[in-house]
Design a protein that fits this description.
Shape: globular
Number of helices: 7
CATH topology: Arc Repressor Mutant, subunit A
Helix content: 40-55%
Mean pLDDT: 89
Bound molecules: zinc ion
Strand order of the largest sheet: 1-5-4-6
Low-confidence stretches: 167-181
CATH superfamily: Winged helix-like DNA-binding domain superfamily/Winged helix DNA-binding domain
Structural class: alpha+beta
Largest sheet: 4 strands, mixed
Strand content: 5-15%
């Protein structure tokens, strides 16, 4: 299994994540002989501002604000579609938002652990999940074009700050006991 969960849910020097993502993107684009134009690079950096998924509308707003002129949606959608094609970002269907891929350029499954409280999202690639998906599709005679598993819950940081005080009820969702104290 590969994952960035050790970083995504903790206080850390995020500038390093951002720089690493940008360097990797430049390297992969050079390798594949495609251009990381300024707008594509800017959109990628915006998405890498945090480990929280960012919607296209937010990207358009932030770009318009920072550039001082109205950025047209098609410009942003074209940049997003390029970044998706290159595997530099992923789209989270349930949120209709985008997140930077921490391990671009490698074949991996898209399993996302999305914190419903703070939005922090870690990406994991797990062979056993991959194999199960491939086997399930094969049995159904289904041809997979893309796959994404999105899991909602609370990250380690938000579990400690859960305002509803569910802390003592165990980690498993739905594990609430019937008996009153
Ligand atoms: Zn980071
Ligand atoms: Zn990825
Ligand atoms: Zn959280």
């Amino acid at each position: 299994m590969i994952t960035n969960s050790k970083i995504a849910y903790r206080q850390h020097d995020h500038l390093r994540c951002q720089n690493a993502a940008l360097q990797q993107a430049k390297k992969l684009c050079a390798r594949d002989d495609v251009r990381l134009t300024p707008i594509r690079e800017t959109v990628l950096c915006l998405i890498w501002e945090s480990h929280r998924p960012l919607g296209a509308y937010d990207i358009i707003e932030q770009l318009s604000e920072s550039s001082g002129k109205r950025v047209l949606p098609p410009t942003v959608y074209r940049a997003l579609s390029f970044l998706l094609d290159q595997g530099l970002i992923h789209r989270l269907a349930t949120l209709n938002a985008f997140i930077g891929c921490p391990f671009p350029g490698s074949v991996h499954s898209n399993v996302f652990l999305v914190c419903r409280a703070c939005g922090s999202t870690a990406e994991c690639s797990v062979d056993t999940i991959n194999n199960a998906i491939v086997a399930t599709a094969a049995r159904a005679g289904f041809e997979i074009e893309s796959q994404s598993v999105e899991i909602s819950g609370l990250c380690p940081m938000c579990q400690q700050e859960d305002p509803h005080g569910h802390k003592d009820e165990g980690q498993k969702p739905g594990a609430r006991k019937e008996a009153a104290p």
